[in-house]
């Protein structure tokens, strides 16, 4: 009677642990999250939430099927766990617990999806999946903008498309706002260029993808995309230089580079007025500065623990209603991820968030500087873009921004963490495991010709 279920179980586990399902899962996650605005506009927020919830259930099943391959202690970075845990705790002192719980569920759900992708796909497979999804989304966005602005000469209100492509922008595509499109194009360009350098797609596809991303970035007309692109390009140039420095001099170069970055940030802050004028964003910066001042005033009420995690702002909930009342306008975010975290999770949450991004960047940067494969540059450059755009938008706290931040942290934590050092010390203390059969070991506990790490090839 039980023979059929017993025979079905190994087949189901084999399917859940298969590479084909892992690839399909990764593509679906990226498509659902990056296309989240379009899904909500067409089918509603409940549909998007249902899709994400279903993916979380499937992701949990995949991790269970692959449990023999995954060490629980390596499942997720400590900083990511602490950020999600603190956000969960903040629900208890929130003024609107049900709304805060829904916001936390989104945060935790996307973090789970990032953890699953980080364990079932390697770096190159992740880049390829993201590149495929962004090519489609940007291509569809361009097609809809042409349809709206040139062929029909009518806006598409439910998608937020204004049909201004004939005037060379600004355009929004499937992402709702020009700044959101600009952010996506920067991530896309990083991904497309890594694909090009690793020769993981054909030359024509790679060049066409970069041209598409560059054109959409220019047509977005977003002033923030210029800053993010310039900072990311500078980081790419610095990383290129670090990778070519001999290993014995690399630490000194890294320290000098850190000093240069600190000086550059100080100079940029001191010269912010002429820089903003050069970008033509004086009005935009004035509005943001006014909002940031209101937010800081509300933060003083609960500076340590914040008002509870909500993610995107609910205009009817405290503290967002207080900020909107003081500013005389309705806002969807603080237009600054760091201030948003400070408002919702207090100084404790902000320190945890900075540790999550900072440690992820440091680990990813060191890995990219030491390993030959160009694909390792994707995570630190993506983190540079995320941490930079966080100065002007709160994209990093919800949707694709949070998914990428968590994914990059998971990816970086797999290569450099206290867990890896602890295991190495335990291995050294135990001594090399030598097989007494002739020719099977090289005297260091490895088979002859074994490589020091996966993914180091060119």
Textual characterization of the structure:
Helix 5 runs antiparallel to helix 6, helix 6 crosses helix 17 and helix 10 packs antiparallel against helix 16. The chain has helices spanning 3-16, 19-34, 36-43, 45-65, 78-90, 97-120, 123-151, 178-198, 203-220, 223-243, 247-270, 272-279, 282-299, 320-327, 337-370, 378-389, 399-415, 418-430. The protein has a domain at 223-245 and 256-424. It is mostly helical and 458 residues long. Residues 433-458 have low confidence and may be disordered. It contains 18 helices and no strands.
- Unreliable stretches (pLDDT < 50, length at least 5) are 433-458
Largest sheet: none
Number of helices: 18
Q: Using DSSP, what is the number of strands? A: 0
- Structural class designation: mainly alpha
Instruction: Determine the fraction of residues in helical runs and give it as a percent range.
Output: 55-70%
Q: Name the helix and strand elements from N-terminus to C-terminus, one letter apiece.
A: HHHHHHHHHHHHHHHHHH
Task: Summarize the SSE layout with pairings.
Layout: H1 3-16, H2 19-34, H3 36-43, H4 45-65, H5 78-90, H6 97-120, H7 123-151, H8 178-198, H9 203-220, H10 223-243, H11 247-270, H12 272-279, H13 282-299, H14 320-327, H15 337-370, H16 378-389, H17 399-415, H18 418-430
Helix pairs in contact: 2-4, 2-7, 3-4, 4-6, 5-6, 5-15, 6-17, 7-8, 7-9, 8-9, 8-10, 8-16, 10-15, 10-16, 13-14, 13-15, 15-16, 15-17, 16-17
């Amino acid at each position: 009677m039980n023979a059929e279920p017993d025979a079905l179980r190994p087949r189901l586990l084999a399917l859940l642990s298969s590479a084909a399902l892992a690839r399909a899962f990764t593509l679906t996650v990226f498509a659902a999250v990056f296309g989240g605005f379009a899904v909500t506009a067409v089918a509603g927020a409940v549909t998007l939430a249902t899709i994400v919830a279903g993916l979380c259930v499937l992701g949990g099943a995949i991790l269970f099927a692959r449990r023999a391959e995954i060490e629980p202690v390596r499942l997720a970075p400590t900083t990511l766990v602490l950020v999600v845990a603190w956000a969960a705790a903040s629900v208890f002192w929130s003024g609107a617990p049900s709304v805060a719980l829904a916001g936390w569920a989104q945060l935790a759900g996307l973090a789970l999806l990032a953890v699953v992708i980080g364990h079932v796909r390697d770096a190159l497979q992740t880049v390829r999946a993201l590149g495929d999804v962004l090519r489609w989304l940007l291509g569809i966005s361009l097609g809809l903008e042409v349809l709206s602005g040139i062929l029909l000469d009518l806006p598409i209100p439910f998608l937020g498309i204004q049909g201004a492509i004939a005037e060379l922008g600004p355009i929004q595509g499937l992402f709702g706002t020009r700044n959101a499109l600009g952010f996506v194009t920067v991530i896309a360009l990083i991904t497309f260029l890594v694909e090009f350098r690793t020769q993981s797609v054909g030359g024509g596809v790679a060049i066409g993808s970069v041209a598409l991303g560059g054109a959409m970035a220019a047509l977005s007309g977003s002033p923030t995309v210029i800053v993010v692109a310039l900072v990311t390009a500078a980081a790419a140039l610095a990383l290129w230089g670090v990778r070519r420095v001999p290993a014995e001099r690399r630490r000194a170069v890294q320290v000098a580079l850190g000093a240069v970055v600190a000086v550059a940030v100080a100079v940029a802050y001191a010269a912010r007025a002429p820089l903003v004028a050069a970008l033509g964003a004086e009005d935009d910066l004035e509005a943001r500065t006014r909002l940031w001042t209101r937010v800081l005033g509300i933060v003083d009420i609960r500076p340590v623990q914040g008002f509870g995690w909500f993610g995107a702002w609910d205009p009817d909930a405290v503290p967002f209603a207080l900020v909107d009342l003081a500013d005389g306008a309705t806002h969807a975010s603080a237009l600054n991820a760091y201030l948003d975290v400070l408002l919702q999770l207090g100084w404790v949450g902000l320190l945890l968030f900075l540790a999550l991004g900072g440690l992820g960047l440091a680990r990813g940067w060191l890995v990219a500087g030491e390993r030959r494969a160009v694909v390792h540059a994707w995570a630190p450059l993506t983190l540079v873009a995320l941490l930079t755009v966080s100065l002007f938008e709160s994209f990093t706290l919800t949707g694709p921004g949070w998914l990428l931040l968590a994914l990059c942290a998971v990816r970086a934590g797999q290569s450099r963490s206290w867990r890896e050092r602890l295991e190495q010390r335990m291995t050294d203390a135990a001594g090399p495991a030598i097989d007494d059969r002739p020719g099977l070991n090289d005297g260091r506990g490895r088979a002859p010709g074994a490589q020091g790490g996966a993914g180091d090839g060119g």
